Amino acid sequence: MGGSGIPLPSEGYVNAADIMYLRPNGFTGTAESLFTPQLYFPGNVSEVQGAQILAAAINEQIASGQAGPDNPVYVFGYSQSAAMSSMTMEQLYHQGVPAEDVHFVLVGNAANPNGGIVEMLNFWGGNLSFWNGMTLGHPTPDYFTTDVYTMEYDGYADFPRYPLNLLSTLNAIAGMFLTHIGYFGLSEDDIANAIALETTDPDSLTNYYMIPAETLPLLDLLRLNPVWGSPLAALLEPSMRVLVNLGYGSLTEGWNQGPANVPTTISWDLLPSNISWADINAALANAWTEGVQDAIKELQDPTTYFPGGFMAEEPFSTVWNAAQRVYFDIQDPTSLFGGSAMATDPAGTSDFTDFLGSLVDGNPDLSWITDIFGLDMISPA
């Protein structure tokens, strides 16, 4: 299923979900898209209707004998459809559907018990609604085998517990726009090496995984500025990361501390009580030294002075990879800007720099366009 604004996922979307998230978790069948409303507004109506559609589709698979304990129905949900799946789990559980008959794989889940925004903002309890009408609460339950993947600083799925820390809150909001759209842009290693988060029950059916971020979303837009953008971001990043992570109750981790399966709402304290000012000052001192060293490295890096160099940086390379997979169905993105390889190898910028040079020479090399669409360049006779 798609996220908000994507009622029926494209073939590239389905293939990306299948290859990146379903098959590594045991799926061996043929992935198909399912239509669900996925409306921005009213969100509550969209979720309720979508949950009913999904429950009916799952029950149909089980009733027809196509699914069962040895061949469970696999469900992939992203963003709104991930949160919606939590409602479906409740319906299926109360209908008596066996736990082993369904396997959920969720990414960017706003209903994460500890970090999902629809639970974090449910501090008054009751039946409150988000700005678009989406009902708060209904955290993901532990009724069916479920694997939940969250990217660090994704403000929908990884919202800080201490929102009075404005840096942390602003960073999470930036992550809603820059990080939340990147789940299909990750590499195989990013997903395989995701950190398994603590839960209260080691035998829980639900596994929560955190994918660490290389950069802070709040600083990512700085990197759009050639020459000075990346060095300045590198200088500020370590110190700002300490301050941002305080909003999650940590100095080193950008996700809420405590078991991932325990429903948690925001705290109105400015700082977590378990971290002293001495610890904060020591962390900031070390971070400043690290930032100075990182800024010097950026100044010494030739790609810093290249106008399109920011495409080698996170999150831009990840977002570009996601676009190639979803919109062009290129499941191994290595074309324009070097794809994922460029994020770790500055030499990956060579194709694009050659293209810029060809423009200056008056003989533009457009072979990268044919690479994207899988075409052969035909030379004129």
Summary keywords:
381 residues, alpha/beta, 5-stranded mixed beta sheet, 7% strand
What's the helix-strand series?
HHEHEHEHHEEHHHHHHH
Task: Domain count, please report it.
Answer: 1
Q: Tell me the helix content.
A: 25-40%
Strand content: 5-15%
Report what the structure shows.
The chain is an alpha/beta fold. It has one domain. The chain is 40% helix and 7% strand. The protein contains 13 helices and five strands. It has a five-stranded mixed sheet with strand order 1-2-3-5-4, with helices on both faces. Helix 4 links the parallel strand 2 and strand 3. Helix 2 packs across helix 3. The longest helix is centred in the last third of the chain and has 24 residues. It starts with 10 loop residues before the first helix and ends in an 8-residue tail after the last helix. The C terminus is likely disordered. This is PE-PPE domain-containing protein. Pfam families: PE-PPE (PF08237).
Summed up:
The protein is 40% helix and 7% strand. It is of the alpha/beta class.
SSE layout and pairing:
Elements lengths: L10 H12 L20 H21 L9 E6 L1 H15 L7 E6 L9 H4 L24 E7 L14 H13 L9 H5 L2 E2 L9 E6 L5 H4 L8 H18 L30 H24 L15 H13 L10 H4 L7 H11 L6 H7 L8
Parallel strand pairs: 1-2, 2-3, 3-5
Antiparallel strand pairs: 4-5
Helix pairs in contact: 1-10, 2-3, 5-8, 8-9
